[in-house]
Amino acid sequence: MSTLRELKTRIGSVASTQKTTSAMKMISSSKMRKATGQLQRLSPYRHMVQHVISHLLVTDQQFDSPLIADRDVQRVALVVFGSDDGLCGGFNVNIFKQLLVSINEVREQYGKQVGITIVPVGKKMTKAVEKIAGKEIQMERVALNTRSGSEDLYAFTDLMKTRFLERTFDRVEMLYMHFISTGKQVFTREQLLPVSYQGLADNVDPRAANSPCLFEPDANTIFNTVLPLHIKSMLQDVFIQSAASEQSARVMAMQAASDNAKELLDELQLEYNKLRQQGITTELLDILGGQVER
Predict the structure, then answer these.
(1) Distance between CA atoms of 134 and 145, rounded to whole angstroms?
(2) Whole-angstrom Cα distance, residue 181 to residue 176?
(3) Which domains does the chain have, with CATH numbers?
(4) Residue of 229, 239, 247 whose CA lies nearest to 188
(5) Which three-class secondary structure state does DSSP give residue 81?
(6) Residue 135 — φ and ψ, nearest 5°?
(7) I need a labelling partner for 190 at 20 to 30 A (CA). Which of 46, 103, 135, 231 fits?
(8) Using alpha carbons only, what angle is made at residue 271 by residues 269 and 276, rounded to the nearest 5 degrees?
(9) Alpha helices in 166-218 (DSSP H)
(10) Residue 184 forms beta bridges with which residues?
(11) Residue pLDDT, tens place only, 175-216
């Protein structure tokens, strides 16, 4: 049976834990709001790029770019976004499980002989991918993590684009958690390269046909200029979506930890009060017993 001193020590420890988890929740909430703010600021830029592409695609011209060229798929790169830090619940575990599912889907789609290279972003995801890397599945380390800035992200985009143009990879896909709300993130698998021409066409603004434009020097040159910007904006959006989802998962994990600590603290406090009351009752009985003997 626990003594009052032991219970008091445990109560202090649990109370300290609750304060820590509450503070971490507040920090993660702030970081999540910062990430969602970045998504909102990125939206006008993506809209403008898509606006230019819409005006190009409503013309009758044919566009030619190596970045939209489909070819026989011999090697696929899967860029999977995880976290650098822990304490975010099942965030990395869920992504890794979906990564294994995606690997099987790629083999079903392109054949078991297809080469697969996994490009992990984040220390936690890198450690997980190391366990499955081997002859059939290769892993490529890159200088990109969840704390990287725009320059590192753009350099990574250029690297993936160069690998695609050099035919090192025939297809590049991104695996990440898409941020919906604080309590909901959805795993998403999205094609980065080659850029889906049909996907661009499906997102054409119908109003573009009502406002014809003149293109200088020519539409195809402008298309090849805007397309790399579209790729960069896609990757930046995914990077921020993953960051917002990570912080959201950490907020939920810290909330659950804080709730559990509070529940345990209430139980310990109740046990402490019972034990203290029992001790007081025993002392009173001893005093009364002594008086009766007199």
Answers:
(1) 23
(2) 15
(3) 34-251 (3.40.1380.10)
(4) 239
(5) strand
(6) -70, -40
(7) 135
(8) 95
(9) 197-202
(10) 181
(11) 999 999 988 999 999 999 999 877 777 777 666 556 667 777
Q: What is the structure's pLDDT at 270? A: 87
Residue with tokens 């003149």: 214
CB 271 within 8 A of CB 8: no
Amino acid at 282: T
Cβ proximity of 118 and 133 under 8 Å: yes
* Calpha distance 239→146 (Å, rounded): 8
Q: State the amino acid at position 26 in one-letter form.
A: M
174, 195 Cβ separation under 8 angstroms: no
Question: Stretch 234-262: mean pLDDT, rounded?
Answer: 93
Please state, as a whole number, how many other Cβ atoms lie within 10 Å of the Cβ of residue 62.
7
Q: Is 80 helix (H, G, I), strand (E, B) or coil?
A: strand
- Please name the residue that has the structure tokens 């899967």: 78
**What tens digit of pLDDT does each residue of 41-79 get?**
998 888 888 888 887 777 777 788 899 888 899 999 999
Residue 6, both tokens: 């032991």
Q: Which of 238, 148, 160 is nearest to 194 (CA)?
A: 160
Instruction: List helix spans (H) across the chain.
Output: 4-57, 91-110, 123-130, 150-165, 197-202, 219-293
Say whether 76 sits in a helix, a strand or coil. strand
**Encoding tokens for residue 196?**
């889906």
Burial 280-294 (b: 16+ CB within 10 A, else e): eeeeeeeeeeeeeee
| C-alpha span between 95 and 85 (Å, rounded) | 15
| Other CB atoms within 10 Å distance of the CB of residue 72 | 6
Q: Is 69 exposed, middle or buried (0-12, 13-18, 19+ CB in 10 A)?
A: middle
